[in-house]
Amino acid sequence: MNQAREHILTRLGLSQKPVSGDDLAMELGLSRTGVWKHIQMLKKNGADIQAYAGKGYVLKSDVFSAGLLQAGLSTQRIGRDVLVLEETGSTNQDIMKQAEAGADEGVVKLAKRQLNGKGRLGRTWHTMPESLAGSVLLRPDLGPERVPQLSLLTAVALHDALSAYTPDIRIKWPNDLLCRGAKVAGILTEMRAEPGRVHAVVLGFGVNLKAPSDGWPAEITQKVTDMESISHQRINKLELAASILNALDQWYEIYLKDGFAPLRTAWWQAHAASGDNVRVHHGNAYIEGVATALDDDGALLLQTSAGIQRIIAGDLELL
């Protein structure tokens, strides 16, 4: 977003009283007419901004902007730099490019629409008009074999944030969030590494906020749902995004301080199939068994007729 418009939205969004055009003009180094033109453009793009003679401007609608999002964060690492885009190809790809250019840990990029979003196994990641899609850059001092633990960390953080709206959110290994069996959110983790050392990890996530008015895309064959439908309330995207980033930051701090153990416990408690019969599509075959535990590296342990089997990749089906 244009920096001047971002500043205007942030000032209006954080103010409890009208903000004068003179103040905005002075802060931005613009004329009153220049400020007015930016406000007209913001209104054209959907912001409900009212002008009160002799008082100033007031923001009447919910607005999703980087400045307002940062104001709602209580993080130590994540969210030092936040960018909100109207549209991009892929937030994961954008963040990875920033990582390769030397960006610091904690960069966040969110987009209202992704044109080339992807999920696991090369699947298309559909970013609906009413969804939340974003990516976070981490630079942990880890070996590449431990990066799958960060996907589990992201799942726990999403579970914590979404559970504030409904108690029925569950994690499905390895990277989905469900409500009563329907997918409401997903995760995609990517990394740049060399043997023994990780250079960058990008945590990508997407949450369905509201069902599309014209229905879900025909390409989506699994059962899906959205936060408004399951919580029976309107979802404030800004508040939810802040909750997710705050939870990610809190769990990342716990992970760096105390290791995988507390994360594994929280994940197992939130898993949709802990102790249940499941079937995993693994390679060209199906493996059935009881989900008995999560291994130290994030692998799912199944008790099968042939004994305990470690599942490090695959699609899990709840039976």
- Beta-strand share of residues: 25-35%
Number of helices, counting only DSSP H or I runs of 4 residues or more: 9
Name the assembly state.
Answer: single chain
Q: Which word captures the global form?
A: elongated
Structural class by secondary-structure content: alpha+beta
Query: Helix and strand string, N-terminal first?
Result: HHHEEHEHEEHEEEEHHHEEEEE
- Mean pLDDT, as a whole number? 91
Q: Would you count the extended β strands for me?
A: 14
Order the strands across the largest sheet as they lie in space.
Answer: 3-4-5-9-8-7-6
Helix content: 25-40%
Low-confidence runs? none
Intertermini distance: 46 Å
Question: Mind explaining what this structure looks like?
Answer:
With about 325 residues, this protein is α+β, with helices and mostly antiparallel strands. The protein contains 9 helices and 14 strands. A hairpin with a 2-residue loop joins strand 8 (about 180-195) and strand 9. The N and C termini lie far apart (about 45 Å). The relative contact order is 0.11. The model has no long low-confidence stretch (mean pLDDT about 90).
Summarize the structure in short.
By secondary structure, the chain is of the alpha+beta class. It has helices spanning 3-14, 21-28, 32-44, 66-71, 91-100, 148-163, 227-231, 237-258, 261-270; strands at 49-52, 56-59, 81-85, 107-111, 131-138, 169-172, 176-179, 182-194, 197-208, 277-282, 285-294, 300-304, 307-311, 315-318. Strand 7 (176-179) and strand 8 (182-194) form a beta hairpin.
